[in-house]
Design a protein that fits this description.
- The structure holds two protein chains of two kinds.
- By secondary structure, chain A is an alpha/beta fold.
- Chain A is built from six helices and 17 strands.
- Chain A has two domains: about 120 residues, Roll (2,3-Dihydroxybiphenyl 1,2-Dioxygenase, domain 1), CATH 3.10.180.10; about 160 residues, Roll (2,3-Dihydroxybiphenyl 1,2-Dioxygenase, domain 1).
- Chain A starts with 5 loop residues before the first strand and ends with a helix.
- Chain B has one domain: Beta-grasp domain (Ubiquitin-like (UB roll), Roll).
- In chain B, the strands form two sheets. In chain B, strands 2-1-7-3-5 form a five-stranded mixed beta sheet.
- In chain B, strand 1 and strand 2 form a beta hairpin.
- The N and C termini of chain B lie far apart (about 65 Å).
- Classes of the chains: A alpha/beta, B mainly beta.
- Chains A and B meet through helix 6 of A and loops of B.
Chain lengths: ~300, ~110
């Protein structure tokens, strides 16, 4: 997809069990920058390199998981257009007022067939990456914490991933990049889709319970930076699920780990560019282990059953 | 002064291990290379390490209400990753890894 329409994942609101502990984790371990707090007690973060005001929002409650995942669209006319297309497709939409999320314009919110809340928005205040827009320097991303490049994508779990795929491709202009088939060779176990030229902007796995989060992912600059992230995780006794390793699917290098509330996060690097004229890649059930974890070539129990 | 350690008995398997009072019941088991309680996110999100504490005292962090109701918590049904022992404990495993691999939902016609 040319870079019009839906541009990229822009924000994820996560539920956490203890805000103080979580803020410490997202700043000191993840190396994100806190950019604000609102009257509801939500805390906002961005990576150092992101230009928009926020990409991760934390809300304290007694359950973990994903409240909603937002995509930025090109402009307000595009937002209005998608709202109409969603309604014409039979999807109920809701307008969230500007300012409900700090420094963020109106959002068009809808619920996926898998029960996840998705938002589209056109405006979020550009606070910059500290380097300016005139004769900038290269930012040397030093100092403590993992300090990823950006919040990059999410993997969600729910029942009707076929309905999700249809909605994203037919209404929102996404392309299918890769898929994994179940034993029957027909049913999708999982799909990876993009709205840009990335290997994935969103992924989905079929799961008996709707509305679940597998992980929110952060892009690193290099495989070496992924390994540095692993050192930081061990130094802070972060719960690591698996890795450092590589995915066969998307070919990205990866670590899966958990925040202090049990929300899975990923630091990853690499993967290839996908253009809408490219054939989707299909993985068989027999080779799914190599597809998900390319080096040890086995799915672990946690990949399919540990979600928040 | 050394950190106090306590015995934890997993009644399902008869396995015992020593757990420091500054470790979670799940971390103590994992650090000794023992098995018995299923391990998921270790942070209270996924609920796979749910246990019933049959005897003993412990300190608990906030429990995720998707997995542990107030009634559960009052009755000693908790996540092993969110409790630290303050006496010897006997625990029974309640959580398990669901084998979602077996789950196939028919695509919509």
């Amino acid at each position: 997809m040319a870079m019009t329409g839906v541009l990229r994942p822009g924000h994820a609101q996560l539920r956490v069990l203890d805000m103080e502990e979580s803020v410490k984790f997202y700043t000191e371990v993840m190396g994100l920058v806190e950019t604000g707090r609102d009257s509801q007690g939500r805390v906002y973060f961005k990576t150092r390199q992101e230009r928009d005001h926020n990409s991760i929002i934390l809300r304290e409650t007694d359950r973990a998981g994903l409240d909603f995942f937002g995509f930025k669209v090109l402009d307000k006319a595009t937002l209005d257009d998608f709202e109409q297309k969603l309604q014409a497709y039979g999807v109920k939409t809701e307008r969230m007022p500007a300012g409900d999320l700090l420094e963020t314009g109106e959002r068009v919110r809808f619920v996926l067939p898998t029960g996840h809340t998705i938002e589209l928005y056109a405006e979020k205040t550009d606070v910059g990456n500290g380097m300016g827009y005139y004769d900038p320097d290269v930012d040397v991303i030093d100092g403590p914490g993992i300090r990823p490049v950006r919040m990059d994508h999410a993997l969600i779990y729910g029942g009707d991933i076929d309905g999700n795929l249809k909605l994203f491709t037919e209404v929102l202009g996404f392309s299918l990049v890769e898929r994994v088939k179940l034993e029957d060779g027909e049913t999708d176990l999982a799909t990876w889709i993009t709205c840009s030229a990335k290997a994935h902007d969103l992924a989905m796995v079929r799961h008996p319970e709707d509305g679940k989060l597998h992980h929110v992912s952060f892009l690193m600059e290099s495989w070496e930076q992924v390994l540095r992230a692993a050192d930081i995780m061990s130094r802070h006794r972060v719960s690591i699920d698996i890795g450092p390793t590589r995915h066969g699917i998307t070919q990205g290098t990866t670590i899966y780990f958990f925040d202090p509330s049990g929300n899975r996060l990923e630091t990853f690097c690499g993967g290839y560019q996908h253009y809408p004229d490219m054939h989707p890649i299909t993985w068989s059930w027999e080779e799914v282990g190599r597809g998900v974890f390319y080096h040890n070539r086995q799915l672990n129990d946690a990949f399919l059953s540990v979600v928040s | 002064m050394a950190t106090p350690t306590f015995n934890v008995l997993i009644t399902d398997t008869g396995e015992r291990y020593r757990c420091r009072s500054d470790q979670t019941v799940l971390a103590g088991m994992e650090n000794l290379g023992r098995k018995g309680i299923p391990v998921g996110c270790r942070q209270g999100g996924c609920g796979v390490c749910k246990v019933a504490v049959l005897s003993g005292e412990y300190q608990a962090k906030v429990m995720n209400r998707d997995h542990i109701s107030k009634e559960d918590e009052a009755a000693g049904r908790v996540l092993a990753c969110r409790i630290r022992p303050s006496s010897d404990l006997e625990v029974q495993v309640l959580g398990s890894m669901k084998k979602n691999v077996c789950y196939v939902r028919k695509p919509a016609a």
